Amino acid sequence: MSKPDRYAALDAFVDAHFDEQVRLLQALVRVPTDTPPGNNTPHALKTRELLAAWGFDAVAHEVPAALVHDYGLQSLTNLVVQRRYGGGGRIVALNAHGDVVPPGEGWTHDPYGGQIEDGRLYGRAAAVSKSDFTTFTFATRALEAAGVPLVGGIDLLFTYDEEFGGLLGPGWLLEQGLTRPDLEIAAGFSYQVVTAHNGCLQLEATVHGRMGHAAVPETAVDALQAATRVLAALYAENERLRDHRSAVKGINHGYINVGQIAGGTNTNVVPGKVVLKIDRRMIPEEDPAQIEAALRRMIEAAVATLPGARVEIRRLLLAHAMRPLPGNAPLVDALTRHASALFGETVEACGTPLYTDARLFAERGIPAVIYGAGPRTVLESNAKRADEHIVLEDLRRATKVVARTLLDLLAA
């Protein structure tokens, strides 16, 4: 059978079973996986049950409860499906995450309904990345149904710790030796093939003053006043960061975001404590250790300008940037070629300002790319916003792209 005929057979399988694939995605969306609170074991067990219908034995690996609770989550079980073919080939890991941020407000569709309207399936994680539970599953099914001699194998990894950094998701599977791939494809969120992404540092800065009555403010030290000086310093730093742009296509510049502020006890009380949660996005060219040290110095110096105030700084997360590894060419070449053909437009390798758990593979020397059933852009899908959705035709075409790529990598 010629290569074009093989590709046609894969495409035909995806088309013939697409209704099944859509029903699988609806079932996955209908089991909430909001993180926080992070009670995601029920979704993993439901996924394992659904995969068994196609003969896929998903082994459940429950992360020890103490680790999960220390992490701020309730339950976490990762799934590994191992498919093995002839000897001597590559092992390709396909990793999608099921944990998601809570739906928030503003939805016009049930966030757990899996409703279909005008060719779009709506629901939290419909786009990022429960869609790729189905993309990767049905691409594997198509490959195995094609009747082509295969070598190597596939590890389907369905994990539940992307929103908190991935260390208890793919990071834990890799650390425990439960997967040892040669190449990795992570769940997608755009038409492009992503080979690099930003790093992320998250800090919690607790500013301490001395609480006092607002009628006698001289008896107090205003923690909020000190915190506003920190905010001013951080936002001034953002202006400087705009002038330092990355050389990676798709990535712009570093950025500081203060995502959460808490403090004070009442309107007539001078605040004695204010907590800031800070997110610093780092371009691939930046050194995380230097960035963290400089950010800590900046915060401490700002607080020190108010006598009597002090600050405690705690690191919440450090996610390193992902850089392209030399061995990623087989993945990049196949994915860009097939995506360009099936989507009818040029699909290129690029970077993204987001950070993902794909970096955990790259950090271990495993060439990784990000590709799946994402929309043209994250903004278009409303990922992490109200009315998140996936265009079903994008889901169909991305599944064909992944199936063809697996054939290129694993055909004997």
Radius of gyration: 23 Å
Structural class: alpha/beta
- Ends distance: 13 Å
Shape annotation: elongated
In short:
This protein has 412 residues and is of the alpha/beta class. It contains twelve helices and 17 strands. The mean pLDDT is 96.
What this model shows, in words?
- This protein has 412 residues and is of the alpha/beta class.
- The protein has helices spanning 3-16, 18-29, 41-52, 65-70, 131-145, 170-175, 223-241, 288-304, 329-343, 359-362, 378-381, 392-410, and strands spanning 59-62, 77-84, 86-97, 116-117, 120-122, 151-159, 183-186, 193-197, 199-208, 212-213, 255-263, 269-270, 273-282, 310-319, 349-352, 368-370, 389-391.
- The strands form five sheets. Strands 1-2-6-3-7-16 form a six-stranded mixed beta sheet. Strands 11-13-9-14 form a four-stranded antiparallel beta sheet, with helices on one face. A three-stranded antiparallel beta sheet has the order 4-5-17.
- The protein is elongated.
- The model has no long low-confidence stretch (mean pLDDT 96).
Name a few traits of the molecule:
single chain; 412 residues; alpha/beta; six-stranded mixed sheet; four-stranded antiparallel sheet; 12 helices; 17 strands
Secondary-structure map:
Blueprint: H1 3-16, H2 18-29, H3 41-52, E1 59-62, H4 65-70, E2 77-84, E3 86-97, E4 116-117, E5 120-122, H5 131-145, E6 151-159, H6 170-175, E7 183-186, E8 193-197, E9 199-208, E10 212-213, H7 223-241, E11 255-263, E12 269-270, E13 273-282, H8 288-304, E14 310-319, H9 329-343, E15 349-352, H10 359-362, E16 368-370, H11 378-381, E17 389-391, H12 392-410
Helix pairs in contact: 1-5, 1-12, 2-5, 5-12, 7-8, 9-12
